[in-house]
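User: I'm putting together a teaching handout on how multi-component assemblies are represented. Below are the sequence lines for each component of a complex, exactly as they appear in our records. Could you produce the 3D structure of the whole assembly as structure tokens, so the students can see both representations side by side? Please keep the chain order the same as the input.
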Amino acid sequence: MTRSPRSTRTEARLGSIIRPAAGRLLLPALVLGLIVTIWEVWTRLADVPVYIVPAPSAVGSRLLGEPAFFAGHAASTLSVAIGGWALGSAVAILYAAIMSQSQLLERALYPLALLVKVVPVLVWAVLFVVWFGFGPTPKVLIAALITFFPVLVNTLAGLRAANAEYLDLFRSLNASRAQVFWKLRAPGSLPYLFAAFRIAIPLAVIGAFVAEYFTGDRGIGSIISVAHSNLDMPTVFSAVLVLAIMGIALTALTSYLERRILFWHDSFR
Amino acid sequence: MDKTPHVVVRELTHVYDVSGVSLIALDKVDLEVARGSFLSVIGPSGAGKTTLLKVLGGLIDHTSGTVEIDGTAPEGARRRNRIGFVFQDPALLPWRTVTDNVALPLEIANGQGHGPDTVEGHLRAVGLAAFGSYYPHQLSGGMKQRAAFARALASAPALLLLDEPLGSLDEITRTHMRFELLRLWEGTGRTVVLVTHSVPEAVMMSDEVAVMSSGPGRILRNIPIEMPRPRDDAMEGSSIFAEHVLKVRESLALEGHRGPTATGAGSPA
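Assistant: Of course. Below is the structure of the complete assembly, with chains in the same order as your input.
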């Protein structure tokens, strides 16, 4: 009965470092390398014009030829995406916390959230530009808007998810409503919140991109908008590559934080 | 010590309303539990044992009859932190260490602060002194349940309500923990009401066994267990133990032969 969890844990941790390094990174890298090679050979053999599909080497030299240009705009997109995600999540969590207090509040407030959700993002984009001009504000708001709904729905589900045994326990200990919320419901909703983040963070990047594409003079979206109208495909592809790397990096960061914070959850044992 | 019974139940009836149909869970149950004694409630599934325990603990309001704990309603006794619960599921909060889980009742009762010394004492009592910084997922089933006992003892309740606390453990651990539990309880002067499905467990641990029938839940017989204390595993082979087990089994068999009777439900579905 007194097995030692510490040693089994160390073994598991070693395994989880070595195996994924080989399996998770090597295999996708090989697949990607193969695709890039075929692409390069194809554009050269078929003599595909650079304004239709640029060769990977052309994209690479464009990207590495002016790294500061891409990095600067990427930073702009990233700050809009993260700002929007933070704002959208904060409002969504607060809104869900209020709704979780009673059925009446949920009935009163949910339709409003749904209204925000069903109005197309482009309509909001137009309105935000009218109201707030072309600065960073409307872009952050669009990213926030896209983040809002998935975070709201999941947080609400998480706050409601406390099982009967825990509720009986807290009741038997005479816990107040506030104590049940802060000591049981709030920490219990974290796995749901992270599930929402996994959806919402890539969405925030897309939101930032779309906002920049239509309204921006800065950011990856604006680069693509300008390069596209100039038929400058190496720049378009470079910008897309930067966007993809950004999305993957943010997703990896979320997973990492999730593992660190939710080490106690079933899905990480 | 006070001669008045710790728990007095008179004509307790509890009716559940299951989507319009009344289900009588408890029908005119009478029960007395002497102060400082150990009483087990045994009976088939659906006999209302858990309902009885939840009424005693003030977790649910009963339909009619009187229930007094120390001369007051269960709700009041619960509010004065006079009642400790242990459920079949250990219900440890997965994001808290063992120490913080055991400290939960103190934290809820006095706001934030809790004496680490008290918690450590309870951990030592259940043999988990070395595991205070572990998380529940790092413990075996038996260790988790011991932590749940330490938590129940942390608020120093006068009445302990145990709802099949050993039910989810394997047979070997379970038999062993019976005696561990008895060691924890002996000399504390606490009153214990244990709900169980196991006849040997009820006999080995109790001063008295209340045998319940199902549909509707009634107490058929109260069987005093006239075995000396402290009890130990050597008694498992004794004839006096075997006699008591037989007595309880006969009462349960009686219930079995009666067969399922009309539940007294409002209308047949």
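A couple of points students might notice: Residues 5-45 of chain A form the longest helix (41 residues). Chain A touches chain B through 24 residues (CB under 8 Å).
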